[in-house]
Amino acid sequence: MNIVICGAGEVGRHCAEVLAAQHHNITVIDRRADTLSELDDVLDVRSLVGHGGHANVLLEAGCAKADMFIAATSDDEINLLCASVAKALGAGKVIARVHHSAYFEKRGLDYARHLGIDHLVCPEYSTGLAIASTLRSPGALAIEQFARGKIEMQQLPVGDDAKAVGHELADLKLPASARVTAVKRGEEAFLPDAHTVIQRGDIVILVGESKGFDKARKLFDSESGRSRKVIILGGTAQCVWVCRALKGKNFSIRVFETDPLRAQELSGKLEWVTVLNADAVNTDALKDERVNMTDAFLALTDDEERNILAAARAKTMGAASAVAMLQRSTYQHLLEHIGIDWSFSPRTAAVTKVLRLLDRGPVKHLATLVEGIAEVYELEVPIGATRSVNKPLKELKLPANTILTAVQRGDEVFVPGADSQIEPGDTVIAIGPDKARKELRKLFSGK
Question: With pLDDT > 70 as the criterion, what percentage of the chain qualifies?
Fold first, then answer.
């Protein structure tokens, strides 16, 4: 594929690295000749010095015939302009990276639709959801979130004193918006039915609408009701996304920010968070805030070396878990040796999203929950589809051991029931075995 990337910063460069390795034809635009020169030394890509918002530059880069255009500079407004112009010039799929919530959450206006942009990607948002989900379920073995956090999927170990132990699924009175999609029991994994009895030590894969997810999770996770303490270093945009994702989820959050003006701004923006204008690294502030009693310490500044040092220090002081935000993979191999439990990278989140959007197939593979048994697929139902639409799900002949777990229809997202209907234009999340992919494609697209 012919792909044009505007911006050779961390996100743009990482996109170029990954996509070039997959043998796509990559052109990178940037206003900094020295940055492009460094890129040319390590990657087999074409580079062009210029402003991505200028039509003549985009035409020279080949946007008129590009299969995909990615605007990945550090400036939201520039990215929106570049992507809109690229689309007008004839680029195929157009993606703009944004970090401000006003654009991403369509406050007052659907900016993407207004400007003709196919997708807005917010790496900080995706990373924030991943961090928040990890904190919300410390025992989870894997976490997937779909549809901008409105649908969650988690793997939960069943505790000895969990309410679900000894009961059939039919008797658990799960919320209508939640499903147990798979169960792991020792070396065995299977798709449950209404008569499956939950046992101690099982690992259940739970899917549900985020607004009622905690209620369903409490049946399996006995620790879910306990208030958890989180300390965050750095009042960055990433910090804001994490705090918003944890709002109302039984977390006590304290944020350390050294800039007094930024600290004051965050206090007004995040009313449910305690913001402290203090240096948590070079003072006794962490000791004073009893970091040893903290469930999680998150280092989310824009300085990854500082993040690593702070997270390591917090862990040695007794924090139950430590998280560091990284942009590059340079230090990744060190983290386990110095006690840091997890690291998250916005640039990696951005590339993951781009790769999913690059997949042109009607059925996309999103994740593996149980190898060969429970694979996660995303289906886009064509506008002109006539088969398997506008009829109750209970009448559909789905592939064996396959269930539909989520439906996205415009801005609405929901977990479907037996009487729900799929409509043309819907995006559907399905879970099933390897062989289900071909059957799902035939069922919904007829191909």
Answer: 95
- Position 390 scores a pLDDT of 82
Give the pLDDT confidence of 303-350 residue by residue, as tens digits.
999 999 999 999 999 999 999 999 776 777 778 788 888 889 888 888
pLDDT at 439: 87
Question: Which residues partner with 94 through β-bridges?
Answer: 69
Enumerate the β-bridge partners of residue 154.
143, 206
- Helix segments in 95-161, DSSP class H: 101-104, 111-115, 123-136
Between 3.90.79.10, 3.30.70.1450, 3.50.50.60, 3.40.50.2300, what CATH number should domain 361-445 receive?
3.30.70.1450
What's the pLDDT score for residue 142?
47
221-250 core/surface letters (b: 16 or more CB in 10 A; e: else): bbebeeebbbbbbbbbbbbbbbbbbbeebe
Rounded to the nearest angstrom, the gap between the alpha carbon of residue 49 and the centroid of all alpha carbons in its chain is: 32
Q: Residue 416 has which token pair?
A: 């479907």
Give the tokens for residue 132.
């928040």
Q: Does domain 2-121 have CATH number 2.160.10.10?
A: no
Check residue 273 and report its DSSP letter. S
Please tell me which of 75-89, 173-187, 420-434 the model is most confident about, judged by mean pLDDT. 75-89
Say if CB 135 and CB 189 are below 8 A apart: no
Percent of the chain with pLDDT over 90: 43
Please give the model's pTM, rounded to 2 decimal places: 0.76
Distance in angstroms (rounded) separating the CA atoms of residues 7 and 86? 14
By mean pLDDT, which of 5-19, 196-210, 301-315, 324-338 is the weakest?
324-338
Q: Tokens 């609408």 identify what position?
A: 209
Distance CA 102, CA 315 (A): 35
**CATH architecture assignment, domain 126-217:** 2-Layer Sandwich (3.30)
For CATH 3.30.70.1450, list the domain ranges present in the chain.
Answer: 126-217, 361-445
Structure tokens at 287: 């000791």
Residue 413 has what pLDDT?
Answer: 85
d(CA 444, CA 382): 8
Closest CA to 201 of 139, 263, 273: 139
